[in-house]
Design brief:
Structural class: mainly alpha
Largest sheet: 2 strands, parallel
Distance between the termini: 99 Å
Number of strands: 2
Oligomer: single chain
Radius of gyration: 46 Å
């Protein structure tokens, strides 16, 4: 709609009032230009000018991706960046203000920078930005970078603006200025005129950064990067070596850097010196973070300069001289608290970081320098010495030499300071134990105990020494005084008064300290300064150690003999009474009794004392029946009769009296509480002694040991429990005896005494066959109540070897019950019968859960196993009858009674109901595991009975049973698979190892039921004959089950080539091989295919190529047993074939490409293999197959070549003949190999040109699969023969005890000489790859992977060993040599870095040839030097394709790469500069 006022406006009086037509109106308007490119630019310029005039630059710099609708800056920015718009605006504003645009932009950016830092500012804020601040800062720095790039930004003005508001700056923001190249940290710090202000600001922020780094996990990467950059800059600038011309220019920054580092170090040392550093305090966190910045990782970018080393030396000096307030007397008294273990971990960690760049020699020299030129902090000096000797393995000799030097100087110049240093350093180092430094007693005796000591040079030297020692006496620890008295300095007789005066002074000091020299123990550690223990306590320790020495040597220890002569008061008053403690002497004399008799024969025991000892032992023997009612050995010292042990005995007797009187059952709880109280007293525990509670139970099941007092207490408790159980059971069955047994076990077998109880039970169960029925009944009931309390008892960690996890109490007792022999089976049956019967009687009125909680599934399974094994009547189906009562009779049962009780328990309905629980099923796997533990030679079953039992168990019991009941569901293959897995696990477990010296081993330490393997052979034969029926619903398996087991187990093993992984894999493969050889050879043949006349050996070939080649082969061949097994399998396949000859030829032809190792193995063992093959092939009534004839011809060729007879023709392929020749050379021993090799025929010069071509052409010609027959048989034979000799050389490095390295090297030399003579290149052998076809593929499958990886070792080992045999220039001038040599060198470096040359370290020590090369490191060094010397002498063609080679591994040695590329470029430049020859 039109405006209504328009007509009125157009119709006024006069000219303006005349109404105009539309044409007049339109004619007066300017024509709008058409839109175009120029028009768009004009509009943009106008819009940009409008924005610049109305922009708020401060706010714009803080904008980050604002809403496009409100401020669509991106349309007006140069390519999406705001720099162009802001720069233009700054120019306009600067022109209006009359300021330089750089100054204005710097002020504006600084203002925005400060605003970002102050956002969300709090009083307690740190030095890090939050994500929003960081986002804004990056946008601002991008703009600043644009301004800086266009010369519109002044760094100096920007720094001045920042320092005006230094308190508002965040350290991270300043760090981003440095990392984004806006303003460097050095430029910013040097822009402030006051150095002290800058240092204070940096110190405050760095401390805050360290605290915030340890507290914040969100920005940990940024904070650590910041700290690393600051430390690197301060170390680099503060400790750089400044020349004289630059000293004035760079004076301020080094001053700032050094001051900041000094201030942070002082802060850290003050914090540590305060002594109240808490783990989580801010100061502790700051110090820990700051010290972490001194690591090699943090300083890696400047490690190549000298600055870090100078900084570390300076820092160490500052630490050693920090607050030197302690006197020497203080150090003498307090130095035991400054050992490595007692020094603060932060300080020792700092020492270790400072030691990284300083060698031990430099550290010792620096310590010497600081001690000579500064007043030192003795605590820091001595803690540094402790750290030095602990952390550096070779520091012992350095410190010893340093001390010897100081001692020499001390006596030459009578220098008291050197003497003080010597004694403090030696004592400090000795505090760390004899493993890192000799004891102080040994050093003192070695230094002053002979006439060679410095003190014997003159009287003045003696006076100097004793004056020094006398001055130390008031401050000495008793141990050192004892050392000086017992090992005094050697003094000439005329100066003896000096020694006697000192000894009197030292003894007086010891008397003041109430320490006696005469009562020192025989084996006290005089290197420590711990408090001296009482003589009687030390005497018992001396007795135990003396007996241990006597057990190992069979002689009276020297210390005891010396004490009986020179220290008789201690020997007679303390040592002999501790040794001759009355006890019950065992019938078979133990080590203690033998030691006493040896002393008696040597007249070292007074006759009266010996007679008194025997009378006391006889009295103890007479008291034995009363003290040990059940045969448990209880030794009670006479002095304890009225002591705590006597009180415990009296309390237990009162408990037994109450147990036999039913009228006193109500007082049992109170009596048990009294026993518990007396028990703590007998063990020497106070009421509030919480340290006696153990947190972990660690037991040795092979040789459990107890302290004498612990064994006495435990035997009393076990005796009392068994007697009480017998007494209570004579009146009532277990379910009507109340809860006295549970209370007794809970009160007496808590966590404090539990380890001792379990150890004693372990000892008694090991004596199981000799225990009476009452023993078994009592101990079984005790075990049930211990298992009842499993939820409140700790797990048990047993060993050796330690299990993967801790065992519960039921699992622990199950592991103790073994089933290996007739005696152990009978004891296990007794124990299980007693335990299960007591449990079912005791908890008959309770729920089934009570049974499950106290009965171990392993115990139930062992009971089933033994009953089914020993009693054939138990194998029949049970009737429905149920006896009225459970078989619990506390009587001394005969073996027949035990059999009756076990069968009665077996037929109980309650027990059969228990067996229906899945966890109590005796599965087929469980049965195999238990049966394997049986030793057939001590089995209760005869061989025939055992075989009948196995047949019943497998075919009648487990095979028909469903899998839900532990059976096999009719699957015989599953039975075989389980048996193989269990057998292999058993052979590798500790159960299969007999710890006696004369053990009958099955394989590698395995001892068990060998008949189980016979069952595997029978089942495998049943599977092969097809008598086993495949279960319904399961498809026939592909391949043999044995190979599937192997594959699954190998996949479960850890990969890698480290020693542990290789040994584990090798052990597994040896077991595979043992099992494979024990089964029929037909196992190797796969399922026959109708359309394929050749048998399927694919799985066996895969096993050989992937595993046996690496672990079960040597010198390019398998062992004889696996080789003959394969050929027996081949003969079996031929017997099943319509055309045996074709089958054999096809199989052996396939071996040439799929598994050549089988053929080389046949050649190695051909003298032993041929008779059997020839004999067994006669049954086919046909000539020997062609491929077998080929093997025979190859062996004949090799034999004839080494003999004076006419040389037989070499069959093809050439590698077969080469293998036969190599094995013949090895077996022939030393002889004229050169003459034999010269007899090889090489027809024509064409062979030389065909194989003597450079680079890739040579390798291609060598590995070409289809070449003329004469070439295949002649020249490649020598090359392949050389390859086999390389394998032999590597084997000599890896197993020098089995292969003569010099012999292997001689063989290589002769073959190589023959190749050189015939101009045949051998270099392509070192360039074989998996992608090679033909001969290359064959050779790679003949060598173990480890040998292929170690070819670089063979290359250089051979090169350096044979340089004297051949012309070095001829070798270097070969166009292919440099490429191969560089490739081998780089691979050798990679092997060394990956640690794969470590296998040569131990073997190389025994290999004479590799030892001559200096080991792997020496070989690398020589190879590197050889290459650097050879590069200038190599021809130009040698450098072809060098860049591609260096691109893959050239970074391993940058210097080598640079030399090669430089030489290559120089040769190219020389080639281009030469003028072409036209005529």
């Amino acid at each position: 709609m039109s405006d209504p006022g328009a007509p009125e406006a157009a119709s006024g009086p006069g000219p303006r009032g005349r109404r105009r037509t539309w044409a007049e109106l339109l004619a007066g308007r300017v024509r709008r230009p058409k839109p175009g490119r120029e028009r768009g630019q004009q509009v943009q310029a106008a819009a940009a000018q409008l924005l610049r005039r109305h922009l708020n630059l401060g706010q714009l710099l803080l904008e980050v991706e604002g809403p496009p609708a409100k401020l669509p800056l991106s349309r007006w920015m140069d390519r999406g960046r705001p720099g162009a718009l802001i720069g233009s605006a700054l120019r306009d504003q600067a022109s209006r203000l009359g300021l330089p645009v750089a100054v204005l932009s710097s002020q504006t950016v600084a203002s925005a920078f400060v605003q970002i830092c102050e956002v969300h500012a709090e009083p307690s804020r740190g030095v890090l930005l939050d994500p929003e601040q960081r986002k804004k800062l990056f946008s601002l720095l991008e703009i600043a970078g644009h301004l800086l790039a266009h010369s519109m930004f002044s760094r100096l003005s920007f720094c001045e603006e920042l320092w005006k508001v230094q308190d508002s700056l965040l350290l991270e923001a300043v760090w981003h200025l440095h990392t984004q190249n806006i303003v460097s940290l050095q430029e910013l710090l040097e822009s402030h005129l006051d150095v002290q202000v800058v240092v204070a600001w940096l110190f405050r922020n760095l401390r805050c950064l360290c605290e915030q780094t340890e507290e914040s996990c969100q920005h940990i990467d940024i904070s650590r990067s910041m700290l690393s950059d600051f430390v690197q800059m301060f170390v680099l600038r503060g400790f750089q070596k400044i020349s004289g011309l630059r000293r004035n220019e760079a004076e301020r920054m080094p001053q700032i850097a050094a001051a900041v580092l000094q201030k942070m170090l002082l802060f850290a040392l003050e914090t540590l010196a305060a002594g109240s550093v808490q783990e989580e305090s801010s100061a502790h966190k700051a110090v820990r973070c700051w010290f972490s910045g001194f690591s090699g990782h943090a300083l890696r970018s400047i490690i190549s300069t000298d600055s870090p080393k100078r900084f570390f030396r300076h820092t160490l000096t500052q630490i050693l001289t920090y607050q030197p307030v302690l006197k020497v007397s203080d150090a003498v008294q307090m130095q035991r608290d400054w050992s490595f273990s007692r020094t603060h971990p932060l300080l020792t960690g700092l020492y270790r970081r400072l030691f990284v760049l300083l060698s031990p020699e430099e550290l010792v020299n620096h310590l010497q320098e600081v001690l000579e030129t500064h007043e030192v902090n003795w605590q820091h000096v001595l803690s540094c010495v402790s750290t030095l000797v602990v952390c550096f393995p070779g520091a012992q000799q350095l410190v010893t030499d340093w001390v010897a030097h100081l001692l020499t100087r001390a006596f030459e110049n009578f220098d008291l300071d050197s003497m003080v240093t010597v004694f403090l350093v030696v004592r400090q180092a000795a505090l760390e134990g004899p493993s890192v430094f000799p004891s102080y007693a040994d050093w003192f005796q070695a230094s002053f105990g002979s006439a060679r000591g410095h003190h014997c040079s003159s009287k003045k030297a003696l006076v100097f020494l004793f004056k020094f020692l006398s001055d130390l006496v008031p401050f000495e620890a008793p141990r050192y005084l004892q050392v000086h008295i017992l090992h005094p300095p050697l003094v000439p007789s005329k100066y003896r008064s000096l020694l006697t005066d000192y000894v009197s002074l030292a003894k007086t000091r010891l008397a003041d300290l109430k320490v006696s020299v005469e009562n020192m123990g025989l084996y006290e550690d005089l290197s420590t300064v711990e408090d001296v223990i009482e003589p009687h306590s030390q005497a018992f320790q001396d007795v135990e150690k003396a007996i241990q020495v006597f057990e190992h040597t069979g002689k009276i220890p020297v210390a005891v003999m010396e004490a009986s002569i020179f220290r008789r008061p201690y020997y007679v008053s303390h040592f002999l009474p501790a040794l001759l403690t009355p006890r019950v002497i065992p019938s078979a004399p133990d080590s203690r009794a033998a030691f006493i008799e040896s002393l008696k024969r040597a007249d070292k025991i007074p006759p009266s004392l010996y007679s008194t000892y025997h009378q006391a032992c006889s009295a103890a023997e007479e008291k034995r029946p009363a003290n040990v009612a059940l045969g448990l050995k209880v030794e009670v010292e006479p002095s304890c009769a009225e002591g705590s042990l006597g009180l415990l005995t009296a309390a237990l007797l009162e408990l037994r009296a109450a147990m036999t009187d039913p009228a006193q059952y109500d007082v049992l709880s109170a009596q048990i509480a009294l026993v518990s109280e007396r028990l703590s007293s007998a063990l020497g525990l106070s009421e509030d002694d919480s340290s006696s509670e153990v947190s972990k139970i660690q037991l040795s099941v092979l040789a459990p040991k107890l302290e004498q007092r612990e064994q006495q207490v435990v035997d009393l408790l076990l005796t009392s429990f068994c007697q009480n159980l017998m007494a209570a059971s004579s009146f009532a069955p277990p379910d009507r005896q109340g809860s006295w047994a549970t209370r007794f076990v809970t009160a007496t077998c808590g966590c404090t005494l539990l380890p001792a109880v379990l150890s004693r039970l372990c000892q008694l169960i090991h004596q199981g066959p000799s225990l009476s029925a009452s023993h078994v009944l009592g101990l079984a009931a005790l075990v049930i109540h211990l298992c009842e309390s499993t939820s409140v008892l700790l797990e048990v960690h047993v060993g050796p070897p330690p299990p993967a996890r801790g065992l519960s109490i039921p699992e622990f007792f199950n592991s103790l019950l073994t089933c290996t022999s007739k005696e152990s089976l009978l004891f296990c049956l007794k124990f299980c019968t007693a335990a299960i019967s007591y449990s079912l009687c005791k908890f008959s009125s309770q729920s089934c859960d009570a049974w499950y909680s106290c009965l171990s599934p392993g115990l139930i399974k062992k009971f089933q196993f033994i009953v089914l094994r020993l009693f054939s009547e138990a194998r029949d189906t049970l009737s429905v009858e149920d006896t009225a009562s459970l078989p619990w009779r506390p009587l001394c049962l005969l073996p027949a009674d035990w059999q009756r009780a076990s069968l009665c328990l077996w037929r109980q309905r309650a027990f059969q109901e228990l067996l229906k629980k899945m966890e109590f099923h005796l599965t087929y796997r469980d049965w195999v595991q238990l049966e394997l533990e049986i030793h057939p030679e001590v089995d209760s079953l005869s061989d025939i009975e055992r075989r009948d039992f196995h047949q019943w168990a497998i075919y009648e019991h487990f095979l028909p049973a469903p899998s839900t009941a532990g059976g096999l569901s009719g699957d015989l293959e599953t039975a075989c698979t389980i048996l193989v897995n269990v057998l292999m696990d058993f052979c590798q477990s500790s159960r299969s190892c007999d710890h006696s010296e004369n053990s009958d081993l099955v394989l590698g330490g395995s001892k068990g039921n060998r008949d189980i393997f016979s069952r595997l052979q029978e089942m495998a034969a049943d599977l092969e004959q097809g008598s086993a029926i495949v279960p319904r619903g399961r498809a026939p398996s592909q391949g043999h089950f044995l190979f599937r087991v192997f594959r699954s187990r190998l996949q479960a093993l850890a990969g890698g080539w480290d020693v542990a992984s290789r040994l584990q894999r090798q052990r597994e493969l040896l077991l595979y091989k043992w099992i494979l050889l024990g089964l029929p050879p037909s196992v190797l043949v796969g399922s026959p295919q109708a359309k394929q006349p050749a048998p399927d050996f694919a799985e066996f070939f895969h096993l050989v190529n992937s595993e046996l080649r690496n672990f079960c082969s040597h010198g390019g061949a398998l062992t004889h047993d696996i080789t003959i097994h394969f050929f027996r399998g081949l003969l079996y396949a031929c017997s099943r074939s319509r055309d045996p000859t074709l089958t054999a030829d096809l199989t052996l032809t396939a071996c040439q490409t799929e598994c050549p190792l089988v053929l080389t193995s046949a050649l190695l063992w051909w003298p032993r293999l041929e008779p059997e093959l020839h004999c067994r092939w006669k049954c086919f009534q046909s000539p020997l197959p062609q491929e077998l004839q080929r093997l025979r011809e190859a062996w004949q060729f090799a034999s004839s070549l080494l003999s004076p007879d006419t040389v037989s023709p070499a069959p093809s392929p050439a590698w077969v003949s080469a293998a036969a020749l190599y094995f013949a050379i090895q077996q022939a021993g030393k002889g004229s190999l050169r003459r034999s090799l010269e007899r090889l025929h090489c027809p024509g010069e064409e062979a030389r040109t065909a194989l003597h071509c450079p680079g890739e052409e040579a390798r291609t010609a060598l590995l070409l699969p289809f070449v003329p027959q004469w070439l295949v048989v002649s020249v490649p034979l020598l090359v392949v023969l050389f390859f086999f000799s390389l394998l032999g050389l590597l084997s000599s490095h890896l197993t020098p005890h089995a292969v003569d390295s010099l012999r292997a090297l001689d063989i290589c030399a002769e073959i190589l000489r023959c190749l050189e003579k015939r101009k045949v290149s051998w270099l392509p052998l070192f360039q074989l790859t998996e992608t090679d076809a033909g001969l290359g593929h064959v050779l790679l499958h003949l060598a173990p992977e480890q040998h292929i990886k170690l070819l670089p070792v063979a290359f250089y080992s051979l090169t350096f060993s044979l340089l004297s045999y051949f012309d070095e220039d001829t070798l270097i001038q070969d166009d292919a040599f440099l490429h191969v040599a560089v490739d081998m060198y780089l691979k050798l470096l990679c092997l060394f870095v990956a640690g794969e040359t470590g296998v040569l370290l131990t073997a190389g020590g025994r290999s004479q040839e590799l030892q001559g090369q200096g080991g792997p490191v020496g070989l690398i060094t020589k190879a590197r030097l050889f290459l650097l010397q050879s590069i200038p002498r190599c021809p130009r063609k040698s450098f072809s394709n060098m860049a591609e080679l260096l691109a893959t591994r050239g970074d391993s040695d940058p210097e080598m790469s640079a030399a090669l590329l430089s030489r290559q470029q120089a040769m190219q430049d020389n080639g281009f500069s030469q003028e072409p020859h036209l005529f």
